[in-house]
Amino acid sequence: MEINIQNVGMTYPNGKRALKDITLDLKTPSMIGLLGPNGAGKSTLMKLLVTALMPTSGTIIVDGCPAAEAERLLKAQLGYLPQDFGLFNELTVMQFLDYMAALKGLKDAKAAVSRAIMDVNLEEKKRTRIRALSGGQRQRVGIAQALLGGPGLMILDEPTVGLDPEERIHFRNLFSRMAQDRLVLLSTHIIEDVQSVCDSLVVIDQGSILFTGTPSQLIQEADGHVGVFWQQNAAR
Q1: How many CB atoms lie within 10 A of CB 144?
Q2: How do strand 208-213 and strand 57-62 relate by DSSP bridges?
């Protein structure tokens, strides 16, 4: 899969300008870290990529077709974890994932659900109602639904929020393995979550791209806005 983001801007109806002339090329296989503080525009960019929003300027091209025309094909290959993902509290983990697998139209839903539960280490909680889970366990359920069916494109918005350090390392490594044959875009404000596993990093702040390149190139940035960003966030 190849996604070309060309001079994309996004202004909300209230006048807030969330993105300013963004240009990026994303291609399988790779794992790309999208870095930036809260409110930088990361979530808006991800919503544009999954066609939950349409840009107010510029174009997004998916495998040679405008995103709006490729929406059905895009969503058939998509695993998406938004920041505000909702769960059905009265369902068990397995019931919820069965439901999500049905929505995705997966042919072997039972196997897909079992694999996702195993990947997020929730085997012991699979028959537990979601309302009884801890915050970190609920986050893992959200990750599990994004993993269902082994999608070719994964877009994950702050996936390690609420996870303890050991769990964060587990998921960093899991996403890295998945990116060996697919496109994974992982948004975070915590540099250590992506610096060791991503092929490339994109730093965004106030709706504009400050940096694109490898993690080692970002570390070498010693001055300017990007350097300040690194110093403020690397130790988090």
Answers
A1: 26
A2: unpaired
pLDDT tens, the chain, 236 aa long: 999 999 999 999 999 999 999 999 999 999 999 998 888 999 999 999 999 999 999 999 999 999 988 888 888 899 999 988 889 999 999 999 999 999 999 989 999 999 999 999 999 999 999 999 999 999 999 999 999 999 999 999 999 888 888 998 899 899 999 999 999 999 987 777 788 789 899 999 999 999 999 888 887 764 555 555 555 555 44
Give the integer Cα–Cα distance in Å for 80 and 153: 8
* Residue that is written with structure tokens 């190139």 in the block: 217
Contact 87, 142 (CB under 8 A): yes
Q: Which pairing describes strands 78-81 and 153-157: parallel, antiparallel, or unpaired?
A: parallel
In the chain, % helix, strand, coil (3-state, to 5) comes to: 40, 25, 35
CA gap 77, 178 in Å, rounded: 14
Find the radius of gyration of the CA atoms of the chain: 18
- Per the CB < 8 A criterion, the answer to whether 141 and 130 are in contact is yes
> CA quadruple 55, 61, 66, 72: dihedral positive or negative?
negative
Phi, psi at 20, each rounded to 5°: -130, 100
| Residues 88 and 150 sit within 8 Å (Cβ to Cβ) | no
Q: Is 53 helix (H, G, I), strand (E, B) or coil?
A: coil
Total Cβ atoms within 10 A of residue 77? 19
